[in-house]
Amino acid sequence: MSVSRHDTEYDVCVIGAGLSGLTAARELARTGQRVIVLEARDRIGGRGFTVTSDDGTTVDVGGQWVGPSQHKILALLKELDIETYKQYTQGKHLLDINGRQTQFTGSIPKIGPAALLDLQRVIWKVDRLARSVNANETHISEKLAVLDNITVAGWMQRHVFSKTSRAVLTAAVNAVFAAEPEEMSFLFFLQYVNSAGGLMPLIESENGAQDSRVVGGMSNVAEALAEKAEQHGAMILRNSPVTKVFLKADHVRVLTADNVYGVHRVIVAMSPRDANRIDWQPALPIAKRRLMKNMPMGSVIKTIAIYPTAFWRQQGLSGEMVCDREPLRMCFDATPYSKNGEPTHGALVGFMLGKEARHWSEQGPEKRRAAVLNQLAAYFGDKAKQPSDYIEKDWCADEWTEGCYTGLMPAGLLSQYGEQLRKPHQRIHWAGTETASEWMGYFDGAIQAGERAAAEVLSKL
Question: How far is CA 203 from CA 107, 224, 233, 234, 290, in A?
């Protein structure tokens, strides 16, 4: 017996209320579809998360940057009338690699002419290889499968000749993926680079992925987008983790601890690893299950130290630091937005990444705080030891995400199971930034994936 529109409560259930899920919900709701969004957390926004310090300063403990080539997120911000402001980059940046600390301006570090030539050669080679990889294509040829079966570390060992340039590239991989080079496939790395239009757009602040910040924080964007979806009739429920999904021939039953929802279609807007915790009945195809099970999240702990002033600026420093020490692998100026350009106080945002994040996740907040402030003091002076407030978010310990920034593919996974990444399964469709073909891993990719999944559903409804 078929289930009619009137026998189901909703046309579509979206699981996950990050930007990808909210985008899909809004797109569907404004065409007249009955949409319900189920979010496990007590908040919306997913990996975008803004909190308020003791003095009322808003800080992003999740994703925080947007770049000029990220057209989806910029268009959304314009529509929502949310402003951006430039990441502070004036002054000298710090690079501490292989026991040698240098200061430089612009995007070219002082690492010596031989290492610099080697680094530039490698960037050109990576970009050339990335252009041959279609980020939208998940069916992998035998030729490309060879690149999938080696790690980024393995490729670097063969193609990066300078010890210094290899250390700089390792730091770049840490920064972009919150992971180590040995933890991911080289082909996955190339697809990621392709989706951003090159390696430098991923790395650079000015005109790159870290170009600008959002006034008021990223949670404002999620809240404003959710309001748009609700205005079109979408229902958004927090504290509603999905436990089971029963897939029938003519409808889907979605279960939470308290309710059962009958729908025609489901959009899963979660990381593949996170979606693996749902009990799927009947089980998803084995290739899909293996993909979901074997895509670990990156590992990051984000710290924000707030100070009475941005004292490093008076020292001629930008607040940007990259190193191969611990606990922080990099930091940036995170001074809050000021309309008149004169900030009332300063802030530094730091990142524990990859294996360092996993190690420090088990050390406890007080030990982390002391280590972070001591490291900042080593680079910026003793004033860094005395913040007016200190905030951190250990994404490794997050109940629902279990890591950040995005799901990663180890060697061999993409060529075996990559075609399952965004392929619908009967009445189930897949969103989330991991499924994007443009700016995957970023808010821009999340929006693009949400739009694609909504279009798939509309074509079926």
Answer: 9, 29, 40, 37, 31
Residue 290: inside a domain = no
Q: Is 335 inside a domain boundary? A: yes
Q: Is residue 58 part of a domain?
A: no
Instruction: Report the domain count for the chain.
Output: 3
Q: Are 115 and 164 in contact (CB under 8 A)?
A: yes
Q: Domain of 187?
A: 111-202
Using only C-alpha atoms, the chain has a radius of gyration, in whole angstroms, of 22
Q: Which helix (H) or strand (E) holds 104?
A: strand 100-104
DSSP E strand boundaries for 181-338: 212-214, 235-237, 242-247, 252-256, 260-268, 279-281, 300-307, 317-323, 330-333
443: helix, strand or coil? helix
Of 146, 174, 202, the domain-final residue = 202
Point out the residues of the chain with pLDDT beneath 70. 1-8
Residue 186 and residue 241 in one domain: no
Structure tokens at 66: 């947007």
Structural contact between residues 335 and 88, judged by C-beta atoms closer than 8 angstroms: yes
Residue among 114, 271, 125 nearest 198 (CA): 125
Question: The pTM is what?
Answer: 0.95
What's the pLDDT tens digit per position in 84-142? Answer: 999 999 999 999 999 899 999 887 788 889 999 999 999 999 999 999 998 777 778 88
Do 459 and 442 meet the contact criterion of CB atoms below 8 Å apart? no
B/e letters for 252-280, b = 16+ CB within 10 Å, e = fewer, are: bbbbbeeeebbbbbbbbbbbbbbbbebeb
| Token pair for 6 | 């009137």
Task: Please check whether residue 118 lies inside any domain of the structure.
Answer: yes
* Helix-, strand-, coil-residue percentages of the chain, each rounded to 5: 40, 20, 40
Sign of the torsion formed by the C-alpha atoms of 293, 354, 140 and 451: positive
CA dist 454 and 11 (Å) reads: 12
